[in-house]
Specification:
The complex is a heterodimer of chains A (474) and B (200). By secondary structure, chain A is α/β, with parallel strands linked by helices. Chain A has 17 helices and 19 strands. The chains are: A alpha/beta (474), B alpha/beta (200). Bound molecules: iron/sulfur cluster.
Chain lengths: 474, 200
């Protein structure tokens, strides 16, 4: 009987069983950032412990970094957090990609970029979007701060095994349908809690055809579907992406690549569940509510509580619409926006900015819309600037910013004001997520955000940018 | 490291309405600018406890003085979803909660809470509804979560079977909810595992 990648990685990293029945799992790579690590270092000091494998922890600063003048946080608390990360890394000998390194960025962008993220490894980070690294065939978990302490002190943590659900998306995506739409569609179908207790294995033609960056977009939002981690099996693209990156050992690369590929799920692997989705059913998808599973195709109408099937559903639609101030039953297309945000660990990579740049030339952001483009890392920013992409964004009326999480969760100065509505390429549309307790978020792909920015309202990018519709199949 | 054995929690309850209460709701990100968890209690549920426009207290149950001193939080489905921030259970614990009863929990929140010795147990929707009605009718009702007998009982006469993953229950009851010592004890096995992995 074959094994899934998840089982192979789990088995290889199992140290043993704990008294409570949980598994002690070795964590090959630990990523840290300024928000969830200082308390962990504090606990370590209180217990008189040290960092066991300092070479296996990597730090960067992302959540609170200002995107206008990166190194000048006006907020003294933010400055204190940045200083704490620096001194903790110094004290314990942890590699830190700081603002001066030219490599700083969102932790989930930096790991792959540096080649730290590798197939067949376990990765943990005190951030729920750690699942992103699963795009490389790693088993990557978001963890709490006490677990950050455990990993620092022992390079292991206590964990319950997960079940594995294989999600097969077969066929070909239609023009104007992106990885973001695929992930929003999956969450819409399986629900925001459908993945609790599972690791998601994303498989099928659509993922095979995706670039590594697109795979990251999909895995990034596994947690939004309730799954603790998500992954794509490593293949030739994975190997090609990693070859030559700074943290990849190139001494015997063929052997390394063969080892990586050996972790891919066996053809006869057994799964706890299999879900099949037809790529042709996926349309550009946007959210209308306050949970990532509140998604609809751009051509659909906003749900009407009067049509709800159950009292629970009615209450939840009512709550969401009361918060979103959107009209029940009306088309989502055409709803006015105030802010457009392109960035985050979901969609702040080079390919995202390249794709948008293809369409926005000659267009202008609508009057009254504040549009910001925030590269996911200093390297992404630099590459965009080399290619002139920053100029294309600026010419279209976007503010071109420096790397960080920015308006994804607004722990820095980039925040919504009042009940502004934001077309956002980020991953969470929770109440208050973007910095204003009444701010409203509509999640969508970066190209759809650009279309909304230009139109001044939620738009179908396929119409605005005249994306070739595929010949209708009889 | 001898840890307290958490075999039961008794206290008054308060019901917080809503499904999918995410950790951004429990502790808004702007209050995470801190290098310690101290002081997070006062910001628990901040954005729903205070009107964002006026800053006035809302009619949120945590603002209702009848529920002052409640130590058991009652909630709906998928409680604690979203961000992995331990700031969320920390803020609830610092606020004074000793346990949470919900229909279901998001996993990271559940694990984080267990490691803080704050049990998260599940009951059926109708059972939580019964407890909600009881505490709203009489906030003095005492709820007991018995992790040994696996029951939730109340002074109003309720007696329900609770669910909790066995590993978490065992960790709480046996006083090993913080696994750090056990993790540290296996130094040799850790080194062996690391060695067998080609990349470490
Ligand atoms: S971009 Fe958003 S989701 Fe990603 S790490 Fe930063 S805050 Fe978290």
């Amino acid at each position: 009987m074959g094994k899934s990648l998840y089982q192979k990685v789990w088995d290889a990293h199992t140290v043993g069983k704990l008294a409570d029945g949980r598994t002690q799992l070795f964590i090959g790579t630990h990523l840290i950032h300024e928000v969830t690590s200082p308390q962990a270092f504090g606990m370590l000091r209180d217990l008189g412990l040290t960092v066991k494998y300092p070479a296996r922890t990597f730090a960067t600063v992302d959540h609170i970094v200002p995107t206008e003048n990166q190194d000048q946080p006006v907020d003294p608390l933010a400055a204190e957090m940045m200083a704490a990360l620096q001194s903790n890394c110094d004290d314990f000998g942890v590699t830190y990609f700081d603002l001066k390194s030219g490599k700083q960025g969102i932790v989930h962008v930096v790991g792959p970029e540096q080649g730290i993220t590798q197939p067949g490894t376990t990765i943990a980070c005190g951030d729920s979007h750690t699942a992103t690294h699963g795009a490389f065939g790693a088993i990557a978990f978001g963890i709490g701060t006490t677990q950050v302490r455990d990993v620092l002190a022992t390079q292991t943590m206590a964990m319950e095994p997960l079940k594995v659900r294989r999600i097969e998306v077969t066929g070909k995506l239609r023009p104007g349908v992106y990885a973001k739409d695929v992930t929003l569609h999956i969450i819409r179908i399986l629900g925001a809690k459908g993945g609790i207790g599972f690791a998601y294995e994303y498989a099928g033609d659509v993922f095979d055809a995706m670039s590594m960056e697109e795979r990251m977009t999909v895995c990034n939002m596994a947690i939004e579907g309730g799954a603790r981690c998500g992954y794509v099996n490593p293949d030739a693209k994975t190997v090609a992406y990693l070859q030559g990156r700074p943290y990849v050992d190139m001494s015997d690369f063929d052997a390394t690549a063969a080892r990586w590929l050996s972790f891919a799920s066996d053809a006869d692997a057994v799964y706890d569940d299999i879900v099949k989705i037809d790529a042709a059913d996926i349309e550009p998808t946007v959210t209308w509510g306050i949970s990532p599973d509140h998604g609809i195709a751009i051509s659909e109408t906003i749900p009407d509580p009067a049509k709800a099937q159950t009292p629970g559903e009615k209450a939840s639609v009512e709550e969401a619409l009361a918060y979103m101030k959107l009209p029940a039953g009306a088309p989502i297309k055409g709803q006015k926006i105030d802010v457009a945000f392109i960035g985050s660990c979901t969609n702040g990579r080079l390919s995202d900015f390249r794709e948008v740049a293809k369409f926005i030339q000659g267009h202008k952001v609508a009057a009254g819309v504040k549009a910001i483009a925030v590269p996911g890392s200093q390297i992404v920013a630099h590459q965009c600037e080399q290619e002139g992409i920053d100029k294309i964004f600026s010419a279209a009326g976007f503010e071109w910013r420096a790397a960080g999480c920015s308006m994804c969760l607004a722990m820095n100065p980039d925040k919504l004001v009042g009940d502004q509505l934001c077309a956002s390429s980020s991953n969470r549309n929770f109440k208050g997520r973007q910095g204003s307790p009444t701010g409203r978020t509509v999640l969508m792909s970066p190209v759809m955000v650009a279309a909304a920015a230009i139109q001044g309202s939620i738009a179908d990018a396929r119409e605005l940018f005249e994306l070739e519709p595929e010949a209708a199949v009889a | 490291m001898a840890l307290e054995k958490v075999t039961q929690v008794t206290g008054r309850g308060v019901f917080v309405p809503g499904a999918d209460i995410d950790t951004d709701r429990i502790i808004p990100a702007r209050f995470m600018k801190c290098v310690t968890f101290d002081g997070l209690g006062e910001f628990a549920f901040y954005d729903v406890r205070f009107d964002p426009n006026t800053g006035e207290k809302t009619n949120h149950p945590l603002n209702d003085s009848r529920f002052d001193g409640a130590t058991i939080l009652l909630a709906g489905v998928n409680f604690g979803c979203g961000s992995s921030r331990e700031h969320a259970p920390q803020s609830l614990s610092k606020y004074g909660f000793k346990a949470v009863i919900a229909q279901s929990f998001a996993e990271i929140f559940f694990g984080n809470s267990t490691t803080l010795a704050m049990p998260c147990v599940t009951l059926q929707a109708a059972e939580i509804e019964a407890l909600r009605q009881a505490v709203e009718a009489d906030p003095a009702v005492q709820i007991t979560i018995d992790l040994v007998g696996k029951r939730v009982k109340s002074s109003a006469g309720h007696d329900f079977a609770l669910s909790i993953p066995e590993s978490a229950r065992d960790a709480l009851v046996a006083g090993r909810w913080d696994p750090i010592q056990e993790l540290l004890d296996r130094e040799e096995k850790i080194a062996e595992t690391a060695k067998a992995l080609n990349y470490v």
